[in-house]
Amino acid sequence: MTYHEISHFRLVSQKLYKTSPNSPQEIVHYLGAMQAQDYAMAKWAIGSRCNATEKEIEEAINSAQIIRTHILRPTWHFVAAEDIYWMLDLSAPQVKRFTNSAAKKYGYDLKKLDQTNLAIEKVLAGNNHLTRDEIMRELNIKKTSSDDFLSAAIMMNAELDGLVCNGKMKGKQITYTLLEERVSKPKTKLTKEEALSKLAQRYFESHGPATLLDFSWWSGFPPTTCKLAINAIELQLNSVEIENQIYWFGKAIYYQTNFRESVHFLPAFDEILISYKTREASILLEHQSKAFTNNGIFKPIILENGKVIGTWKRTIKKDHAKIETQFFDVTEKEKKTALFEGIQSFENYLGTKITIE
Questions:
Q1: Distance between CA 237 and CA 277 in Å, rounded?
Q2: Helix ranges (DSSP H) in 54-148
C-alpha cells in the first residue's frame, strides 16, 4: 500500500464518497467523535459526508440526536447521543486534568467545583437552556478577564462530569442544559477495557488506515494504553506496514479499491486532517503550514483525489455565499472549472446560491 492508496482508503472509511445514504446522527455515530469547536464549520463536516442540509443538521443537534460537548481531548466534539455516556466515562478523567488545573488558578479546587455543579444543576433543572453568561450571572460569578477562562473551565468541568451538554441554539448563541434531561442514562456501563476497545475499533474502521500514534493523538490516551486496545481487537482489523509503520484499518474497506476522481471542499478542523498525528498521506510537507499552524489552527481545505491542493473560505451574504480559494500551485483555468464542481454539495447544504472568486 502506498501513501496515495492510504489517502484513497481514508476517503472511503470517512464516508466522503457518500456510497450509501446516512443521516447526520449516523455519520457522527460512525466516526465516533468529530472535532467541533468551530460550530459552523463542524456542521459542514457532517454535511460533507451525507446529503443533509445545514437546517437538518441543526435540527439533529437541537433535538439531542447529536450532542456537542467536551470529550476525548480538551476541545468541543460532536458525539451521537447513544455514545455520550460510555465515552464520557472513558475519557473524562484524562481531560479533567486540564480543566482542574485551569480552575485552580482562580481558586476553584475540586470541592468548590462540585459545589458549583450543584448550583448549575438547580439553575438548569426543568429543561432550562441558558447561555454560559446567563448561567454565570445566576451564580453571581463575574467575568475574570476578556477571555473569561474561569467560566469556560467551570462549564467544561460540568460537561466532563456528565452534568451538562449543549442545549438548543438561542439565535447564534450556544446554550447549556442538563445532559440527563436530554439523553437518558443507559442501564449498563462498559468497563474501561471494553470502552477503550470499542473506541479503538470505531476509530480504525472510520478513520483507517491509521497508526497507533494516530489513534493516541485522536483519543488522547498514551501510546502504551492504545497499544493494549489494538492488541485486543487486532483480529477484527486489517493492517499493512509502510516504512516500519503499521497502519490499521477496518476489513470492510479493504475490498473497496475503485479509485475515482473526486474534489471535496472540506471545513476547518475536518477529521480528514485533524484526526491523524502525521498527515503526509494527505498533504505534502511543504504545504502543511498553509493549511494548519503549529498551535493547532486548521483552515478549510480543498481536497483533490485525497490530496490537499489549497484552502478556501466562505463569506455569508444576504442572498448568497461567497467562496474565495487559494491554491498551493498555479491551477489552469480549465482545472479550476472542474474543481469548482466540487462545491455543488456545499451549495445544496447551505440552500443558497454560491459565487466563487
A1: 20
A2: 54-62, 84-104, 110-124, 132-138
Indicate if the alpha-carbon torsion angle 39, 336, 329, 315 is positive or negative: negative
Three-state DSSP class for residue 98: helix
And the C-alpha cell for 119? Answer: 448550583
Q: Give the closest residue to 283 by CA, choosing from 298, 256, 303.
A: 303
Give the DSSP H or E segment for 25. helix 24-31
- Amino acid identity of 234? E
Q: Which three cell numbers stand for residue 139?
A: 451564580
CB 301 within 8 A of CB 266: yes
d(CA 6, CA 286): 19
- State the Cα–Cα distance between residues 80 and 60, nearest whole angstrom: 10
C-alpha cell at 317: 451574504
67 vs 302: CA distance, rounded Å: 27
Q: Distance between CA 198 and CA 249 in Å, rounded?
A: 14
Q: 102, 159 in Cβ contact below 8 A? A: no
**Residue 82 is placed in which grid cell?**
447513544
The predicted model scores a pTM of 0.94
pLDDT tens-digit profile, the chain (357 residues): 788 889 989 999 999 988 789 999 999 999 999 999 999 999 999 999 999 999 999 999 999 999 999 999 999 999 999 999 999 999 999 999 988 998 999 999 999 999 999 999 999 999 999 999 999 999 999 877 766 889 999 999 999 999 999 999 998 899 999 999 999 999 999 999 999 999 999 999 999 999 999 999 999 999 999 999 999 999 999 999 998 999 999 988 755 566 778 899 999 999 999 999 999 999 999 999 999 988 889 999 999 999 999 999 999 888 888 999 898 987 655 666 667 777 888 988 999 888 887
Q: Copy the grid coordinates of residue 214.
A: 494516530
DSSP string, 324-351: EEEESS---HHHHHHHHGGGHHHHHHHT
Look at residue 55 and give its three-state secondary structure.
Answer: helix
In 105-222, alpha helices (H):
110-124, 132-138, 149-160, 179-182, 192-207, 212-219
